From TrEMBL:
Record family assignment: Belongs to the nitronate monooxygenase family. NMO class I subfamily.
Entry's Gene Ontology molecular function annotations: nitronate monooxygenase activity; nucleotide binding
Protein known as: Probable nitronate monooxygenase
Species per Swiss-Prot/TrEMBL record: Streptomyces wuyuanensis
SUPFAM superfamilies: Inosine monophosphate dehydrogenase (IMPDH) (SSF51412)
Taxonomic placement: Bacteria, Bacillati, Actinomycetota, Actinomycetes, Kitasatosporales
Signal peptide: none
Length: 357
């Protein structure tokens, strides 16, 4: 890992920024305090909400942390297709006794306002998802001493991040839970993502930037594997989602290891953008017909998902999860960092014994 990024954490363990409530100040603080790198998810929050969480996190730890931003999305969704999907969801709205949301509730997630706050009150690291920021957006952050990371899913996206001036890339394999961080959402590429180990190798040959590897990582042996493959650190989301400090709904946490949910798929059912989650009734019924329309579908189904959670029904919740979800361990976040670090060291030692220099 480059010296600048190495200085941010004792261990090469990054807690993924999981938007929707899981990655709040308590989780980020616990991870950073234990020697990992905690992350706040600013996605789906107002600029003011993000600022308040940063203040809260600073009150919990003096160690470095990151903040993740969603890039504004281009307006290319088919309005007619969104309207058809709205009618298909009418039965869900009736069942959960809640209105469907307004698909035109906003496309930019308060991006410019959040950037302005992060320029004026810098944090150690800022990462970007769903696109590549411009050099004009990254330069002021860099001048303020903030390291910048861009999520990529292909070598071409990594090259774009390098050209924009990013300090590092978060390489996201197809195994990852939650949304795929592709820079352009092309339905023609659905299901065509690259596995993490193969992607690390391709990105390593494409750009010289430090790599944070993400996608299905749940154990220290897997962290050691991605480090051996060329990554500088590993980012884990699902592994931290079940921790007591996580703000994820208890039904979501329980579903990770429940025998009722034994596999994951990529779906557009909940947000209109490919995202990996546990297969439930809503995904099975609506996934095949959900349009490529983010964030329109996200806004449309937001109330339904909240109503289902309130009703205690995980069958209509977005149960985001990586492919390794069955390996989730219900440990305090700080303890999980310690266990992962010990496992990583043990795996590295075992590899050295098998293949001495």
């Amino acid at each position: 890992m480059s010296s600048a990024l190495t200085d941010l954490c004792r261990y090469p363990i990054v807690q993924a920024p999981m938007a929707g409530g899981a990655s709040g100040p308590e989780l980020a603080a616990a991870v950073s305090e234990a020697g990992g790198l905690g992350f706040l998810a600013a996605g789906y929050k107002t600029a003011g909400g993000m600022y308040q969480e940063i203040k809260q996190l600073r009150g919990l730890t003096g160690r470095p942390f990151g903040v993740n931003l969603f890039m504004p999305q281009p307006a290319y969704a088919d309005a007619a297709a969104v309207d058809v999907y709205r009618h298909q969801l009418a039965g869900e709205a009736s069942w959960y006794d809640t209105p469907l949301g307004d698909p035109d509730s906003g496309r930019d997630d308060g991006y410019e306002a959040k950037l302005a706050i992060l320029r004026d009150d810098p944090v150690p690291l800022v990462s970007f998802t769903f696109g590549c920021p411009t050099p004009a957006a990254l330069s002021p952050l860099k001048r303020a001493g903030t390291l910048t990371v861009v999520t990529v899913t292909t070598p071409e996206e990594a090259l774009a991040a390098q050209h924009a001036g990013a300090d590092a890339v978060c390489v996201q394999g197809i195994e990852a839970g939650g949304h795929q961080g592709t820079h352009r959402d092309d339905p023609a590429n659905d299901g065509g993502g690259i596995g993490l180990l193969a992607l690390i190798g391709q990105v390593r040959e494409a750009v010289p930037l430090p790599i944070v590897a993400a996608g299905g990582i749940m154990r220290g042996s897997q962290i050691a594997a991605v480090l051996a493959a060329g990554a500088d650190a590993a980012q884990l989301g699902t592994a931290f989602l079940v921790c007591p400090e996580s703000g994820a709904n208890v039904l979501h946490k329980q579903a990770m290891t429940s025998p009722l949910f034994n596999r994951t798929e990529l779906t557009r059912a909940f947000s209109g953008r490919p995202a990996r989650g546990l297969v439930n009734r809503f995904m099975s019924e609506h996934g095949p017909y959900a349009p490529a329309a983010y964030p329109e579908v996200h806004h449309l189904t937001s109330g339904l998902r909240k109503a289902a959670a309130k009703a205690g029904d995980p069958q209509a919740m977005a149960l985001w999860a990586g492919q390794g979800h069955r390996l989730a361990r219900d440990l305090p976040a700080g303890r999980l960092v310690e266990v992962l670090a010990a496992e990583t060291a043990a795996a590295g030692s075992a590899l050295a014994l098998r293949h001495p220099a």
